[in-house]
TrEMBL record:
<comment type="similarity">
    <text>Belongs to the 1-acyl-sn-glycerol-3-phosphate acyltransferase family.</text>
</comment>
<protein>
    <recommendedName>
        <fullName>1-acyl-sn-glycerol-3-phosphate acyltransferase</fullName>
        <ecNumber>2.3.1.51</ecNumber>
    </recommendedName>
</protein>
<dbReference type="InterPro" id="IPR004552">
    <property type="entry name" value="AGP_acyltrans"/>
</dbReference>
<keyword id="KW-0808">Transferase</keyword>
<dbReference type="GO" id="GO:0016020">
    <property type="term" value="C:membrane"/>
</dbReference>
<keyword id="KW-0443">Lipid metabolism</keyword>
<dbReference type="Pfam" id="PF01553">
    <property type="entry name" value="Acyltransferase"/>
</dbReference>
<dbReference type="InterPro" id="IPR002123">
    <property type="entry name" value="Plipid/glycerol_acylTrfase"/>
</dbReference>
<feature type="domain" description="Phospholipid/glycerol acyltransferase">
    <location>
        <begin position="23"/>
        <end position="135"/>
    </location>
</feature>
<keyword id="KW-0444">Lipid biosynthesis</keyword>
<keyword id="KW-0594">Phospholipid biosynthesis</keyword>
<dbReference type="GO" id="GO:0003841">
    <property type="term" value="F:1-acylglycerol-3-phosphate O-acyltransferase activity"/>
</dbReference>
<dbReference type="GO" id="GO:0006654">
    <property type="term" value="P:phosphatidic acid biosynthetic process"/>
</dbReference>
<keyword id="KW-0012">Acyltransferase</keyword>
<keyword id="KW-1208">Phospholipid metabolism</keyword>
Amino acid sequence: MVLILLGRWKVKGREHIPSSGPLVVVCNHRSYWDPILVGCALNRQVHFMAKAELFSYPLLGTVLNKVGSFPIKRGQSDRNALRTAINLLKENKIIGVFPEGTRSKTENLLPFKPGINMVAYKAQCPILPMAVVNSRKVLLGWFYAVEVRIGKPIAFASMDQRPSSEVLEDLSEQIRQAVSDLLK
């Protein structure tokens, strides 16, 4: 409803969204609108990882908790956040991640932070690449069309043993490339 009032927006690639099962959504991050746009584009609730500092604001922290977001401490290996993500995925939920770790001030993708690949491996679930275009211009109304683009899910190959760091880096680059391709 809010998006209809604020301006034009469209979603491309909805046919790629699995109707059930666990899913890790990976998306670029340009504005505060990105989680709302991603959540509206999917037909299922998304539990977003959000920087822990946001939960310290009383109103915002309450809203984030109510919509199912959970905190992640940036700049360190936050095992609690990773455990929360894995548990949600084991309950067939969707988690949303902005692996750049912060909002990019340019149209270029920032390097992806490590960690989400291990979550997908442990939960043995697909990764859904997404891209949001023009999200910084949501408040400019009908002059700009905001677009959410959804790519084909990337299946994490079933492995009996922990993948090497090289395998995880390759997967991270594959995911980053999929998001980058959606931005073109």
